[in-house]
């Protein structure tokens, strides 16, 4: 497969850097109260925490992307352009949903009331997006099929005797 030219490499680098720095900026702008009122019918005050989580996930995802870009700079091919473009966007959604899953009790991890703990988990979700998706696949297979994951997965479903969702202690 043909390697990417310098124009594509520069574009990918600038794009990831924009997500990385821009996510910090958006978090700071939200924290400073710059975004208030309604945007597209959404009360931004109610959505504030989710912006923190989403953009923390984007920081993690874009940081991982920048690291991969640096490590594989000379081997970049066209097939990886989509990966680099979508990673920060996908990490936003995964980070928000991870915090919601933990807050709901479906995934077993006590985050407490600290916003820093939730933001940290969101960042780690973005950084470890690939591993997160593997765990979510194994969890959904366990929860909805009643079968243990074929690859060792997360340790069983809720209420099962193989441990709680996410590998916690068994209930039942």
Order of helices and strands: HEEHHHH
Counting copies of identical and different chains, the oligomeric state is single chain
What's the Cα radius of gyration?
19 Å
Please provide the count of β strands.
2
What structural class should be given to the helix and strand makeup? mainly alpha
Q: Mean pLDDT across all residues, rounded?
A: 81
Strand fraction: under 5%
Please, how many domains? 1
Number of helices: 5
Outline the biggest β-sheet: 2 strands, antiparallel
- Poorly predicted residue ranges: 154-172
Note the gap between the termini: 53 Å
Widest beta sheet: strand line-up = 1-2
In helices, the fraction of residues equals 55-70%
The outline comes out as flat
Structural commentary:
The protein has 172 residues and is mostly helical. It is built from five helices and two strands, in the order H-E-E-H-H-H-H. The protein has a two-stranded antiparallel ribbon with strand order 1-2. A hairpin with a 2-residue loop joins strand 1 and strand 2. Helix 1 (6-31) packs antiparallel against helix 2. The termini are far apart.
Question: Which secondary structure elements does this structure contain, and how are they paired or packed?
Answer:
Blueprint: H1 6-31, E1 38-39, E2 42-43, H2 44-71, H3 81-104, H4 115-127, H5 129-145
């Amino acid at each position: 497969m043909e390697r990417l030219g310098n124009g594509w490499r520069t574009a990918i680098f600038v794009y990831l850097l924009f997500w990385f720095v821009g996510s910090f900026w958006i978090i700071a702008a939200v924290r400073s109260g710059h975004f208030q009122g309604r945007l597209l019918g959404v009360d931004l005050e109610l959505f504030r925490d989710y912006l923190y989580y989403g953009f923390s996930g984007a920081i993690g995802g874009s940081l991982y992307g920048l690291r991969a870009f640096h490590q594989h700079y000379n081997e970049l091919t066209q097939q990886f352009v989509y990966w680099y473009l979508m990673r920060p966007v996908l990490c936003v959604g995964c980070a928000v949903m991870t915090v919601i899953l933990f807050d709901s009790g479906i995934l077993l991890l006590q985050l407490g009331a600290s916003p820093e703990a939730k933001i940290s988990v969101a960042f780690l979700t973005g950084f470890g997006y690939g591993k997160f998706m593997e765990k979510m696949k194994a969890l959904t297979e366990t929860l909805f099929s009643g079968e243990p994951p074929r690859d060792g997965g997360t340790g069983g479903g809720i209420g099962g005797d193989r441990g709680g969702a996410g590998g916690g202690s068994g209930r039942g």
